[in-house]
Amino acid sequence: MSNKQFDVIVIGGGPGGYIAAIRAAQLGFSVACIDEWKNDKGGPAPGGTCTNVGCIPSKALLQSSEHFDQAGHHFADHGIGLSNLTMDIAKMQGRKDTVVKQNNDGILYLLKKNKVSFFHGRGSFVKPANAAVEGGYEIAVTGNANENLTGKHIVLATGSNARVLPGAPFDEEIILSNDGALKMSAVPAKLGVIGSGVIGLEMGSVWRRLGADVTVLEALPTFLGAVDEQIAKEAHKAFTKQGLKINLGVKISEVKKAKKGVSVAYTDAKGEAQTLSVDKLIISIGRTANTIGLNAEAVGLKLDERGTIAVDDHCKTNLPNVWAIGDAVRGPMLAHKAEEEGVAVAERIAGQHPHVNFNTVPWVIYTAPEIAWVGQTEQQLKLEGRAYKAGTFPFMANGRARALGDTTGMVKFLADAKTDEILGVHIVGPQASELIAEAVVAMEFKASAEDIARICHAHPSLSEATKEAALAVDKRSLNF
Ligand code: FAD
Ligand code: NAI
């Protein structure tokens, strides 16, 4: 029996993989996409971590919990009275599951529309293909689909898994990864979070807003070290005021499950021994590339010392015609970064010369206030010895923010001292996730701070804070 042959086989149907498959199909290739994620009925659930246990469900829960928080604490400011406010966690989770399913179904539809053959199962290397497919590979699919395929180009988009803290394996009941953190059926009275990174803060915010007493334990002495210091300080102030207990500079000694819940023994920043007893514990200490099941050894695929698939700047692996993208390779673990690499690889296979600009990949933390940034931070510029100018504008002085009742935070611009080129934009405050897009466009076009300052922004809008921060670079804010 001859194998089905494809120009391109993509292994993994997350945001990197399914987008690579669609772009390759648009470019005229015959394409297969293999993904093993199962929904609770055992059927296909493409979209990867992002759709199933990441970006999408977390944002659904952040929205629900934000509504609850608004209703409980802020509606009264608008004259809206509520008595007997309740939260139906099962309904909230059901809504989240529906949102996830809509995305799974949407991806299946898109693959079909673009004539990508979808295979539900695990894809692994068998061997380099025979002469019929020069430079190609034989890939076995096992699972709901069971067959061998042959592809001239292979794109690996196998994503990542939550990093395990030694001695504290996930059981997803008491000790939770992102998966369990998104599925709790009741609000824990006490919730512990190890790691105050993106997942810790987003998931901690969800459950705090719903009533949990949340304590975060972070190893580093600084809060959100990768974020501009001034922005991180402002965010820390806001989160602490909301009731999130953030302990920095801790060293975890032991995580022990108790009769009820779990206890965490740690040394605090002063070197004193402490114990935290909680009902549930989320461990969010980073993620590691997922290459399990690829049978990488069969073809000699090179991994680096951290188990990440080794690639060059163009996502080429050590093997001819084998590419790798997204969380499985170096660089930020973000869905939009995976997508950009997916598009770029498909275009490179077609002989084009695309470029992914890592310096303009935006970051967003979807807490309240939201945190978003692009480009370099002030501390990075100082370290580089680059001469820069800074301009900030607080949302407190923005009319739209006042009308919204959401005046926490600021927009901050960093521009080259001589040329005025924008080097970084940092936002903490309302709708930061949307506002950052203007800064990304500006940086892609190598705009100066003055370019933004001279653009007409709608009034009243939060985006006026962006214009004002750009004006502030030249010390000529109009409204502050
Ligand atoms: P994945 O999305 O992990 O997809 C990989 C797919 O490959 C999976 O379906 C997996 O089952 C499949 N697979 C693996 N091996 C095989 C195999 N051998 N055969 C067949 N299939 C295989 N990023 C953002 O940009 N914004 C956010 O708001 C955001 N929120 C997040 C929230 C949480 C809680 C988490 C955990 C992550 C979040 N991320 C967010 C990160 C984002 O989810 C990842 O960066 C993104 O999913 C990476 O995409 P990917 O395609 O590389 O891998
Ligand atoms: P992270 O890298 O963002 O944060 C991990 C934190 O854990 C760090 O602050 C680290 O210092 C700390 N840590 C590590 N080991 C520790 C230990 N032993 N004890 C205490 N603290 C420890 O990783 P996280 O939150 O797990 O998220 C993984 C990735 O998923 C993110 O880096 C991001 O790329 C992606 N993501 C993106 C989101 C977004 O774009 N909004 C949302 C959620 C996740």
Question: Would you kindly provide a written description of the structure presented here, covering whatever features stand out?
Answer:
This protein is of the alpha/beta class. It folds into three domains: 3-161 and 288-356, FAD/NAD(P)-binding domain; 175-285, 3-Layer(bba) Sandwich (FAD/NAD(P)-binding domain), CATH 3.50.50.60; 360-473, FAD/NAD-linked reductase, C-terminal dimerisation domain (Enolase-like, domain 1, 2-Layer Sandwich), CATH 3.30.390. Helices cover 31% and strands 25% of the residues. The chain has helices spanning 15-26, 48-53, 55-73, 89-113, 178-181, 198-209, 229-242, 335-349, 378-384, 399-404, 432-444, 449-453, 463-473; strands at 4-11, 31-35, 117-128, 137-143, 147-156, 160-162, 175-176, 190-194, 213-217, 245-247, 251-257, 262-267, 273-278, 280-283, 287-289, 322-324, 363-365, 370-375, 388-394, 410-416, 422-429. Strands 1-2-3-4-5 form a five-stranded mixed barrel. Strand 17 (363-365) and strand 18 form a beta hairpin. The longest helix has 25 residues, at 89-113. 1,4-dihydronicotinamide adenine dinucleotide is lined by residues 165, 194-200, 202, 217-220, 252, 284-287, 332-334, 364-366.
Quick check: average pLDDT? 97
Helical content (DSSP H or I, runs of 4+): 25-40%
Question: Cα-atom Rg, whole angstroms?
Answer: 24 Å
Arrangement of strands in the largest sheet: 1-2-3-4-5
* Beta-strand share of residues: 25-35%
* Count of the domains: 3
**What is the assigned CATH homologous superfamily of the largest domain?**
FAD/NAD(P)-binding domain
User: What ligand species are in this complex?
Assistant: flavin-adenine dinucleotide, 1,4-dihydronicotinamide adenine dinucleotide
Oligomeric composition of the shown chains:
single chain
- CATH level-3 fold name of the largest domain: FAD/NAD(P)-binding domain
CATH top level label of the largest domain: Alpha Beta
Number of strands: 21
In CATH, the architecture of the largest domain is 3-Layer(bba) Sandwich
Identify the overall geometry: globular
> Quick one: biggest sheet?
5 strands, mixed, barrel
**For the terminal residues, how far apart are their CA atoms?**
74 Å
Number of helices: 13
| Low-pLDDT segments, ≥5 res | none
